[in-house]
Specification:
Layout: E1 3-7, E2 10-12, E3 18-25, E4 33-39, E5 46-51, E6 58-60, E7 68-73, E8 78-83, E9 92-99, E10 107-108, E11 112-116
Parallel strand pairs: 2-11
Antiparallel strand pairs: 1-3, 3-8, 4-5, 4-9, 5-6, 7-8, 9-10, 9-11
Length: 118
Amino acid sequence: QVHLVESGGGLAQPGDSLRLSCAASGGTFGSYVMGWFRQAPGKEREFVARITRGGGSTAYGDSVKGRFTISRDNYKNTVNLQMNLLKPEDTAVYYCAAGPSLDLYNSWGQGTQVTVSS
């Protein structure tokens, strides 16, 4: 399994932007589908975005479409989540995940907190 470490979380105001990064090590990064998920207090984990191995296809959860963009760099072994027009309801712990297919993620990072508040 690949080891994942997220960074870039923090406190933002509504309308601000944040960029999350996830660094991968210990595996063949280009062989993994990569995803971002989030979990707010008292809520179930929610799919945010995913990107295929070569980066040619992406998908987003309905709540973030048009505001968030996922990208990857298979040379640097990183996946990023650009978050624009942040809303208070985006507040959550964001997790990076890797897996062998679009619907299976078997490696997870420790999470990074994103708080959107005025």
